[in-house]
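Interim report, section 4.2 (structural modelling).
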Amino acid sequence: MKRLSISDRLFVWIVYAILTISTLAVALPFLYVVMVSFSTKAEVLSRGFFLLPKTWSLDAYQYLFREKNFLLSFRNSLWITLVGTVVNIALTSMMAYGLSKPWIVGRRALNILVLFTMLFNGGIIPTYLVVNTFGLLNSYWAIWLTAAIAPFNLIVMRGFFQSFPPELEEASRIDGCSEFYLFRKIVLPLSTPAIATFTLFYLVQNWNTYFNALIYLNDSTKWPLQVFLRQMLIEAADSSMTLEIEGFEFGPPVKMATVVATALPLLLIYPFFQKHFNQGMMLGSVKG
Amino acid sequence: MPSSDIRGRLRRGLPLYALILPGALYFLLFRYLPMGGIAIAFQNYDPFEGFLHSPWVGLEHFRRLFGDSDFWLLLRNTLFLSMLNLFVFFPAPILLALLLNEARIRLFRRAVQTVTYLPHFLSWVVVVGISVLLFSTQDGAINEWLVSHGKERIGLLTDPAYFRPLYVLLNVWKESGWSAIIFLAALASVDPTLYEAAVMDGANRWKSMLHVSLPALRGVIVVLFILRLGQTMETGFEQVLLMQNTMNLDVSDVFDTYVYRNGILIGEYSYTTAVGLFKSAIGLVLIVAANTWAKRKGEEGVY
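Predicted structure of the assembly:
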């Protein structure tokens, strides 16, 4: 390779510098929160801002994992995410498979009905009143059912099923397979990578659900972690009144530890995501 | 097509209809039924009377809406935040992709991508939460640092002047990396001989980024920009709601947060449904217009 000219060397230098700074700007706030979560309240009060604690401590986490409300909301979040994702994947894959058959009568109309919901919706109040009418307020079903299918995911998955060769269907029909059998035993196993990707997207959506939980769940013992965290951090900072949540004597490290605990499950599944989008999955990237 | 064929296809499709049914019911009950519920925008809906017995009032709520000074405030704030997204947030991922494309060390690229994609998966509660820990007036990191250097505390979260910059900053922080993916994909498909030709013509790296890479992104940029225009009414509801407080309400209140506060919390169902309908109707018109425009540019729209 030819040696770079001076102007090119300068250019490359600037490129790496800007990228390094941007990456640090993304990483540092999170790193700061993680670091302080391992420090003590005394150090935070005396030193103010720092990135590396002088005394490392697990106090914040020890406190947090004894805090009843935290444990409860963590368990609620796990349950909401688990059942929610099963509902999401079941309904989305079944409907996507049905709509992937070009010969199905009424397919066009159904596709248009699905598409239209991406462009227009009833809005917050009418949806809330429907949920109320069905008697779902204060039940997790309000969360699971109102977000059962993301139309975008449905459309992408339908496209994926359509890419299956029609011979597969014909061959299995000649062998006397039922449509259910074909779907469950042949199509689904062949779709593992796609199903895995959508499972991850739905997992994130369910774990991060905040607003629906806020409006549909009145009973604070049913709140997921996101609502708990919001109560703990934002409302405390907003109002001047002292927060009723116990453990405030532990100060900032406990808040930081709660942020870390809320983000942790996502950080744990993040490597799986990477594997998939490195394989060229760009799902969702055009959405925003 | 002969009707017997349709009947045959219907019979053959029975198991498939069974698979479609739960999903179709979902769309019917939780997507289309609420659309029907929009009718209460033309009523004085009373939860105790129910939908059927509440009195109809025609366009009264809309007349009130357009005469309401709140309405102009909501519209102004929505447009302001959208413009910030369009002109400050939108270029960020393009820039990131262009720079990443120039970084040839694979490990470095991977590291930058891993870190910058990550915040996309964090909830807005976590992201706004982190911003509170950094920016809050009493024990936020920035203010602690300022105080330890003998400076005054700044009300970064409470002073309305900081709301909009902070709003777009959080957006850039959370979504730039992930949004760069689509531009990176477009750059990956550029014919390498174009770069070689540019070098032959005496272009340095900067020139070839400007005259080969950037033009290669032109199509994607134009279409995504148009489609973003179609999203003008959407300002990221959860983000705004979470960043909102009583001090910054004048600049942070948008249609959705107004509907939430006055509808869900105060119970003014009919009026807030009208407010919501106004927002979604304009949104629908904008999306359809943007999509048609994008398609005329010869590109794929969102539908």
